[in-house]
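User
New here, help please:
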Amino acid sequence: MLRDIGWGEHDVRESWVLTMPSHALRELLRRLHDEAAHILIESGIEAQSSRDDAATNGRFQIGYETCEKVLASLNLERRRSQ
């Protein structure tokens, strides 16, 4: 996904030019955000096994928060251009 949106894994730039249409990026980020939320709030035996892997949960949390921030930025840009 990083390659698709024009970001490198260790990219140090503070801004990027998107290389995929913003509507497609929004849809992708919403899906990833929803998937991360599902993993983070799961219940029962699955939740216990997930809690056993704190590093994985940390990555899901970072992904969830990143999706929120990028979606908010994309939505702000869309409102400005309307």
Summary: Residues 22-81 form one domain.
